[in-house]
Amino acid sequence: MKHQEILLKLLEVTENTKDSFQFLKLFRSLEPEKFAVIYADSGTLMESAEALLYNLKLLHRLELYPVVVLDKDGISYTNLFYRNHSKEESETTLPGKLFRNFGNLSGSVASALAEKKLPVFVAEEKGDLLFSFLTKLSTELHSKKLIYLNPKGGIYSQGEKISIYDVDSELVPDSTDRSLLYSCLELYKNVKDKDFGIAITSASSLLKELFTIKGSGTLIRKKNRIDFIEDQNSVSRDKMTQLIERAFQRSLNPGFWDQKFSGILLESEYKGCALVKETEFGFFLSKFAVDEIARGEGVGRDIWDRMMERFPVLFWRARKENSISKWYMKVCDGMQKEGIWIFFWIGVKEENIQKICYFLKNLPQDLSSVE
């Protein structure tokens, strides 16, 4: 399969061109061993061995080398990966190097990568010992993500899949998922790396979990720190400008920062921000910008929740073609379409709606025109 065909196959699976290429660029910029640890439990190997093989082969062809850990109880099913013992790779052969001795994890991984193969470990352990091994592996390799594959494809609460689970959340999972969730939470805390995350998904959804902002399973992470800043001169305008222009892929007009903002909600590492202005009708959300990759970390949701706590009466506008407009439609109390714009509002008085729409219609643009 040629490189272009591989990329097309990735886009076919993820259904999102822009996101997929951004994530691919990010993953390729990492040292190979840091990309991800993928653990497949016995249920996954028994039910979805073919899907797992297909996706791992696709990652390998994209020059990405996840460290794979396979459950010993399902290892008989992985014979699918190793049917062809000749040196030539076949469609039923995983380009991996198998390890059963875990004495030197970093050395084993390095030897596989030197041969341009996926490091594949067979886990003898169960329960706490398994998670101790996954913790050690993730820590030693400085992995950015552990992906736990199981047939359910995520953690559920009251029958609904949880897309993001904060490590300090009080949300109670369904009884069938509690043991797995609590073990993953303990693993997350023991790795002690602010950039580390855990995703629980299915083998068939592995690529969607990796290459799309929305993901496919349950992401376990620490809630982002969102600061409320009243003095706009206390933030880096250069960093703010870069963030906004990257998010909108358009340049800010000269004089943008001459405006007076009532407050700025800012992620501590400039991954996202919201700029709010006070008007006679309530508070106007001037800009809501999140770095593209950070959207998959729940940064936008954390900023939005903090903003709603502070500004329960809010209105704003977005271009019709803006991908976030669909989400705005779900969270707003009301909306109105006007030309290239959609006007949104939350908590406003009914008698102010037309005045707000007039205000938004005549508001000058802060960003350069779309060419």
Tell me what the structure shows.
The protein is elongated. Helix content is 35%, strand content 22%. The chain has helices at 3-14, 17-29, 42-61, 105-114, 127-141, 178-191, 206-211, 237-248, 299-310, 325-331, 353-361, and strands at 37-40, 67-71, 96-99, 118-123, 145-149, 156-157, 160-161, 164-166, 197-201, 218-221, 226-229, 263-267, 272-279, 282-290, 314-319, 334-338, 341-346. The two termini are 36 Å apart. It folds into two domains: 3-221, Acetylglutamate kinase-like (Carbamate kinase, 3-Layer(aba) Sandwich), CATH 3.40.1160.10; 226-362, Aminopeptidase, CATH 3.40.630.30. Helix 5 (127-141) runs parallel beside helix 6. The model is unreliable at 84-88 (pLDDT under 50). The protein has eleven helices and 17 strands. Residues 224-369 form the N-acetyltransferase domain. Pathway: Amino-acid biosynthesis; L-arginine biosynthesis; N(2)-acetyl-L-ornithine from L-glutamate: step 2/4.
Using brief descriptors, characterize the structure shown.
11 helices, seven-stranded mixed beta sheet, Acetylglutamate kinase, Aminopeptidase, ArgB_GNAT, kinase, eight-stranded mixed beta sheet, Carbamate kinase, about 375 residues, AceGlu_kinase-like_sf
